[in-house]
């Protein structure tokens, strides 16, 4: 029989530990496919953050530096500037990139650092107990918003891709989801485009991926997937928000 589906070479051959229904495993697969496609496994250095995203070092057959919480863009900047021939991959969550790390990602993007950022948005602090994150939806119940997020007290969910896209140093910015086969293909294309932005030195490549967190949402895996369609996408619209074709900065 002919094999039509195999594990990417950039993924370590071991079972994922993520909660049932979590999309990190799917996203890992797409990122690994991009690493293999562009042939950058031997030159890639990952900057992992604190949170569920930190397990980058367990599953990818690449060099990885564990960054302090929110500081992956600063660590990635240092890696890239010291080793400009390396491909630098940042893999971050919303409680990391959009909260304690907001300053780092905004200024790295504004400087046009040639980094590829995969930003997993599941609207909650997944590893530390399900607290409200900057991207938590209005009305969403968390351990620190037991009655639901309320804009008068907590503000609105932050839209990182729209914010990042308006900065001149960004070469590519998109928001995708992985809840259906069609959207999986769109996410794969966006991740490939973000890789190309770094390879072609067009500035930061940024991909936000809407993801599930069934455990902290208190939902079944199936209902968690449905929530992406019914609640997340209406507030966080999918699409390409910026794509610079050349590498000339204004």
List keywords for this structure.
single chain; 250 residues; alpha/beta; Rossmann fold; seven-stranded mixed β-sheet; 7 strands; globular
Would you give an account of this structure?
The chain has 250 residues and is α/β, with parallel strands linked by helices. The protein has ten helices and seven strands. The chain has a single domain (34-241), classed as Rossmann fold (3-Layer(aba) Sandwich). The longest helix has 19 residues, at 181-199. The protein starts with 23 loop residues before the first helix and ends in a 7-residue tail after the last strand. 48% of the residues are buried. The model has no long low-confidence stretch (mean pLDDT 94).
CATH level-four homologous superfamily name:
Thiamin diphosphate (ThDP)-binding fold, Pyr/PP domains
User: What's the CATH topology name?
Assistant: Rossmann fold
Q: What's the N-to-C terminus distance?
A: 54 Å
Main beta sheet, described? Answer: 7 strands, mixed
Mind telling me which CATH architecture this is?
3-Layer(aba) Sandwich
What's the shape?
A: globular
What is the C-alpha radius of gyration, as a whole number of Å? Answer: 17 Å
Order of helical and strand elements:
HEHEHEHHEHHEHEHHE
Domain count, please report it: 1
Number of strands: 7
Measured as a percent range, the helix fraction is 25-40%
């Amino acid at each position: 029989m002919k094999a039509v589906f195999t594990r990417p070479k950039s993924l370590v051959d071991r079972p994922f530990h993520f909660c049932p229904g979590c999309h990190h495993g799917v996203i890992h697969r797409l990122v690994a496919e991009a690493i293999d496609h562009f042939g950058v496994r031997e030159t890639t250095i990952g900057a992992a953050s604190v949170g569920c995203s930190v397990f980058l070092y367990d599953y990818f057959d690449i060099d990885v530096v564990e960054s302090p919480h929110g500081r992956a863009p600063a660590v990635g900047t240092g890696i890239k500037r010291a080793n400009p021939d390396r491909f630098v991959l940042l893999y971050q969550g919303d409680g990391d990139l959009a909260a304690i790390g907001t300053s780092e990602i905004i200024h790295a993007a504004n400087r046009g650092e040639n980094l590829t950022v995969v930003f997993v948005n599941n609207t909650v602090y997944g590893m530390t107990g399900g607290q409200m994150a900057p991207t938590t939806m209005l009305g969403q119940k968390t351990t620190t918003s037991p009655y639901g997020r309320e804009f008068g007290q907590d503000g609105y969910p932050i839209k990182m891709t729209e914010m990042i896209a308006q900065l001149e140093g960004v070469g590519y910015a998109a928001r995708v989801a992985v809840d259906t086969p069609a959207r999986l293909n769109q996410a794969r294309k966006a991740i490939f485009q973000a890789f190309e932005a770094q390879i072609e030195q067009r500035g930061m490549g940024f991909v936000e991926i809407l993801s599930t967190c069934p455990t902290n949402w208190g939902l079944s895996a199936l209902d968690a997937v449905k929530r992406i369609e019914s609640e997340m996408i209406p507030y966080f619209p999918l699409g390409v928000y910026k794509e610079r074709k050349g590498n000339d900065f204004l």
